[in-house]
Every structure is written in C-alpha cells, then in structure tokens.
Amino acid sequence: MQTIVFRLEGLACPECARNTGMILERQKGVKKAVVTFATGKVKVEYDPAVITPGEIEQVIAKTGYRITGRG
C-alpha cells in the first residue's frame, strides 16, 4: 500500500468532503480515503498495482473538485 495526499479547491462543506471520501473508497484499489474540509486535503491509501495516482486524480476531477497540488 502507498499513501498520497492531494490539495483540493472548491470543497463547500464537511458533507461534501465526506461524500468525496466515500466515492474514492468505492474505487478498486483504494483502501482508505480521508478528506479534511478544514484543510482542503485528501489522503488516500491505495494499492499501486491496482490504481495509479493519475486514476485517483481522474476520480477526484469527476466529483467536481480541482486538485491544486500534492502533499
């Protein structure tokens, strides 16, 4: 397992953050996703043999949020 952190723009509320985390956790290869509304960060624990950081970014983009960086 590996962990990656993305900074997001556009999180409107804590519920939005929770929903984004649930969407990520439904992806094959994602073990855990924690989206923190206060910091605008999402921490994803994933299996790189199953899903890539680029694929995780695509899932985030489909939720309507913009990634402004990593870490």
UniProtKB/TrEMBL annotation:
Residue ranges annotated for the HMA domain, each copy included: 2-68
Keywords: Metal-binding
InterPro entries found in the cross-reference section: HMA_dom, HMA_dom_sf
PROSITE patterns given in the database record: HMA_2 (PS50846)
GO molecular function: metal ion binding
Highest taxon, organism lineage: Bacteria
Protein name: Heavy metal transport/detoxification protein
Originating organism: Desulfofundulus kuznetsovii (strain DSM 6115 / VKM B-1805 / 17) (Desulfotomaculum kuznetsovii)
